[in-house]
């Protein structure tokens, strides 16, 4: 039995379950920080967090509001900087899983967090890559978090900030990227994964109460629905930890 | 600034207004800190009051530091990876408005690429290789026009170049070095001679400082040089690389300074709202930048000592665990 939960809570739990115990996790601002803290307090107590601004392997007591927050330093192994985080830990190949968000996500898991419309004078300008393009290229695998609406899931993103499977098949390797790639896209409607080899997207699960057909209707490219199950709902324990330990103040939970 | 009998500088302490006067219009500038942390905002407000224009600003992940300069009309170009104030402004609002209206030159890189560019400048190299940007529009699309690249000496002739490694044949991306006229930093402690101690994350402050011709450091606390030299392993920038030092308590408000104070949620929310239109932002500047005659008056305008006390970091944590972050 499950208690009532919000879509944001369901997504956070689904994202947390992508983390395996003992992995080194590069966590960005927002939902990924909640997911990583939740994973540490449930099934992956040995996972290690790295923040791009320099917090390395903390034992956080309070939720940070961004990756540069002092809260990422409590009990940390190191307070370093961008040089250590990006050059040695990420580019050096020590990050197992990275989390990414974005305004647009396309058929092959490429992400736009730069601009919609004409790049030079866009209809909407976003924050920019930050470390996302680096994480997308260099982490062992990535998990993408996104709001699922048709205009945000186009066949091709307007601007490819962070590389996914590029154009499918072996195009990522041909672009010179050494490994990595998106493992899952956790959205407000379900979880999308990619076929080995072709890198074609399929719906792994739709969230409780959402039909696979509805997910397809909100997606601007064809999704294989043949294996779509239901996203397992959060357990009482996960919700309890999320609400009372990870974000009791509602810094993120109460904005969604 | 004081000089001894042999001409050596023995004291680099100057006022905020004197520091602002060291930044001419048209200068290339980098600003330390990261999103909502440790930016030299008191100095930036002084620059706005001085009417500096046409700055070329280089950063990696900026927040309402660079966004303030953009909104006040001080900036000609930004080369950056990211501009946002965490949960308070997921997109820096003036940045967004100015780019959408075509009112700002800009160039996008990733954080690792900007880190590499500053590192090259600090190391005296013309470029630095990164593995990022392959297969992205960061490589394919340019913000700066060919004409700007040809005619503006502050613009790199190329945004980036993909080359094959001469040893392995792998594709790597070369990004051009950044050297700036000035680097503006805010840190916890510095000595009057310019020795710098940074607590918490360094971000990219050291590389940015060493990639600049002149470094101006504002600090929470001025400390004896001898005291800092007792623990040299904790110091990050040598005095001979620093041009001037300005003691400014709460000099990064509304941003946080590890071990000193937290970010100010109320003010960051107020900023994010004001920066959504020209009129509201003009009113913000009147109230918090042009109105207060100096930094002390600014601190009064944002709530005075009683309010600032609520931001004070708790010893052992470096932030305030009681801070209310939901307005």
How would you sum up this structure, described in words?
The complex is a heterodimer of chains A (256) and B (327). Chain A is of the alpha/beta class and 256 residues long. Helices cover 23% and strands 19% of the residues of chain A. Chain A has a single domain (7-255), classed as Glutaconate Coenzyme A-transferase (3-Layer(aba) Sandwich), CATH 3.40.1080. Chain A has seven helices and 14 strands. In chain A, helix 6 (212-217) links the parallel strand 13 (201-206) and strand 14 (229-230). The radius of gyration of chain A is 17 Å and the shape is globular. The radius of gyration of chain B is 20 Å and the shape is globular. In chain B, the strands form four sheets. In chain B, strands 3, 4, 6, 8, 12, 13, 14, 15 and 16 form a nine-stranded mixed β-sheet that branches. Chain B is of the alpha/beta class. In chain B, helix 3 packs across helix 4 (93-100). The chains are: A alpha/beta (256), B alpha/beta (327). At the A-B interface, helix 3, strand 9 and helix 4 of A face strand 7, helix 4, helix 5, helix 6 and helix 8 of B.
